[in-house]
Specification:
Elements: E1 2-3, E2 11-12, E3 15-16, E4 23-24, E5 30-31, E6 72-73, H1 114-121, H2 134-167, H3 171-175, E7 179-182, E8 191-196, E9 199-205, H4 208-215, H5 228-231, E10 237-241, E11 252-253, E12 261-263, E13 268-270, E14 276-278, E15 290-293, E16 298-301
Cofactor: [2Fe-2S] cluster
InterPro entries: bc1_Rieske_TM_sf (IPR037008), Rieske_2Fe-2S (IPR017941), Rieske_2Fe-2S_sf (IPR036922), Rieske_Fe-S_prot (IPR014349), Rieske_Fe-S_prot_C (IPR005805), Rieske_TM (IPR004192), Ubiquinol_cyt_c_Rdtase_Fe-S-su (IPR006317)
Keywords: 2Fe-2S, Disulfide bond, Iron, Iron-sulfur, Membrane, Metal-binding, Transmembrane, Transmembrane helix
């Protein structure tokens, strides 16, 4: 690189890359094996470069121009010789043929043909796949949706039916759902105990005196107020479950202080209508669902 000093001619400066020196001699020359190779002696007889044979101090040292184990590097700052042209980039698509530029919007005129706009934007044309008759496709779609709905409803119905049938009672349980008792087999003033759904059922053919006694009771004095008419469908027939409402024991018939039933477990007394009169039982004996078959003279429990 050429530099011009304020006064005097231009001076060329050359930069040298030197190897690291281990020490420096008194005259300023670095002592190095690679640098001092094949160079003459730099020191004179007096050791200060003032004797005979020493190099001149007004000249550059001989080692400054030598090339050996080091290289010479010259750095030059060069300026561009051509003019730089800047180009602005934008994303506006190319204007298709047959279209014009709107003077205000600066964009493509949308009144151009669709074919030219499609070609410019690169969007594929699916017009060849468009159905010629839209009504036919709509009918087919409705048919498919309706068919799938019917199949789904049928499958759901079958699933629910199978689930409910699996949860239903078995045949032996259904056989015990109802029992029939012949009324002629129970004489007046007697009890009959039958088994229904694993529970004892008391059936009593009451006399006229027992019916009158049951109706004479003041329901206001009862723990679980019920009239005799509410507990019977026919006054002469009393049907109820033989399970004590205290802890589920089976009371004894024709016993107790009221001529009805008595539970020996905890001392609950029931009258001739099955209503609790004394003891820890909170409720009257339960009356199950039953009916009469007049033609066959049977009582159907259940």
């Amino acid at each position: 690189m050429a530099l011009r000093a304020p006064l005097g001619p231009a001076v060329n400066i050359t930069r040298q890359t030197l190897l690291p020196a281990s020490r420096t001699l008194p005259n300023g020359v670095p002592a190095s094996m690679g640098l001092n190779r094949n160079l003459p002696s730099m020191a004179g007889h007096d050791g200060h470069s003032h004797g005979h044979g020493s190099e001149r101090s007004d000249l550059p040292p001989a080692w400054a121009g030598k090339t050996g184990a080091f290289s010479s590097v010259t750095r030059v700052a060069a300026y561009p010789t051509t003019k730089i042209n800047f180009r602005a980039l934008h994303t506006t698509p190319a204007r298709p043929a047959g279209s014009s530029i709107h003077p205000l919007s600066g964009g493509v005129n949308h009144m151009a043909s669709p074919e030219s706009q499609t070609a410019s934007t690169g969007v594929p044309d699916f017009s060849a796949y468009k159905a010629s008759n839209s009504g036919r496709n709509r009918t087919l779609s409705y048919f498919m949706v309706g068919s799938l709905g019917v199949l789904a409803a049928s499958g759901a119905k079958s699933t629910v039916t199978d689930l409910l049938s699996g949860m239903a009672a078995s045949a032996d349980v259904l056989a015990l759902a109802k029992i029939e008792v012949e009324m002629s087999a129970i004489p007046e003033g007697k009890n009959l105990i039958v088994k229904w759904r694993g529970k004892p059922v008391f059936i009593r053919h009451r006399t006229a005196d027992e019916i009158e006694e049951a109706n004479a009771v003041d329901i206001k004095t009862l723990r679980d107020p019920q009239t005799d008419e509410e507990r019977t469908k026919k006054p002469e027939w009393l049907v109820m479950l033989g399970v004590c409402t205290h802890l589920g024991c089976v009371p004894i018939g024709e016993a107790g202080d009221y001529g009805g039933w008595f539970c020996p477990c905890h001392g609950s007394h029931y009258d001739i209508s099955g209503r609790v009169r004394r003891g820890p039982a909170p409720l009257n004996l339960e009356v199950p669902a039953y009916d009469f078959n007049e033609e066959e003279e049977k009582i159907i429990v259940g």
